[in-house]
Amino acid sequence: MQNPRSAFNPLHTMHTHARETCLALGKPADDATLTAAIEAVGLENAARVLKLYPFEMSGGMLQRMMIAMAVLCESPFIIADEPTTDLDVVAQARILDLLESIMQKQAPGMLLVTHDMGVVARLADDVAVMSQGKIVEQGDVETLFNAPKHTVTRQPGFRSSRPLRYGAGIMTLLNVCGLSHHYAHGGFSGKHQHQAVLNNVSLTLKAGETVAPAGTQRLRKKHPRAAAGRLRVSLTREY
Predict the structure, then answer these.
(1) pLDDT by 10s per residue, the chain, length 239
(2) Per the similarity annotation, which family is this (predicted)?
(3) Beta-carbon count within 10 A of 165 CB
(4) What pTM was estimated for this model as a whole?
(5) CA–CA dist 42, 84 (Å, integer)
(6) Coil, strand, or helix at residue 97?
(7) How many helices (H) and strands (E) does the chain have?
């Protein structure tokens, strides 16, 4: 899953890839089955996706397509190598939900390979931490995160949580209330449509905190200024 593009033949559509996977394993290969698997991983307009070639899809779409093909296989054992790489946080959550569902309904086991300790904390029961090609610590998730023993697992950056730099709630740096923003887009006809990228968003940023508004890849690609936070807003200081 770490390099999904290399897993697909550029001469074949997604329909051919998915159908061949099913036929090779003696699984149903009808369009309804293929469509259901594609929709399960959050790819919109499954009928269109099946007609696409690998070079017409983004890395994130190909990654989700790989997982869809794994769903079609109904494998008794799953090897998930970096399943959330290159996916936005919304897609990541959807993929993790999907993997959990597969584990509950189909697979008795999963080998998860990842550098994302948040994914480990959510999906894994037991963890084997490797450093320089060797397992340095192994145990259940709660013990490893709450009482790590090795110098690698005791490093501050190993776990996703970190102490606040200035202490929580000392000072409010930014207070946003009801922020909305839209972009106009249209063709040569002169008729413009307005698409909202922020709709009544409110948030507060305090010293020592990190606030991370999350969006989809579609937002980042179509409206990079909004995704990057480069919107012109007026700030008012309260005394």
Answers:
(1) 667 788 899 999 999 999 998 999 888 889 999 999 898 888 889 999 999 999 999 877 888 898 888 888 877 788 888 888 767 777 788 778 878 887 877 766 888 998 888 888 888 899 999 988 899 999 998 888 888 899 888 887 676 544 445 555 567 888 888 888 777 766 555 566 666 777 788 888 877 677 766 666 555 555 444 444 555 545 444 44
(2) Belongs to the ABC transporter superfamily.
(3) 9
(4) 0.59
(5) 13
(6) helix
(7) 9, 6
* Side chain identity, residue 139: G
Q: Which residues pair with 206 in a beta bridge?
A: 172
Cβ–Cβ under 8 Å, residues 152 and 129: yes
Amino acid identity, residue 164? L
CATH architecture, range 4-124: 3-Layer(aba) Sandwich (3.40)
Which pair of structure tokens corresponds to residue 235?
């700030």
Largest CA distance in the chain: 71
Pairing of strands 126-131, 134-140: antiparallel
- Whether 177 and 202 have beta carbons less than 8 Å apart is answered as yes
Handedness of CA 7, 10, 13, 17 (dihedral sign): negative
Q: CA–CA separation, 41 vs 61, rounded Å?
A: 9
Could you tell me if residue 54 is left (phi over 0), alpha (psi between -120 and 50 degrees) or otherwise beta?
alpha
Q: Answer yes or no: are the C-beta atoms of 87 and 55 closer than 8 Å.
A: no
Among 168, 137, 134, which Cα is nearest to 155's? 137
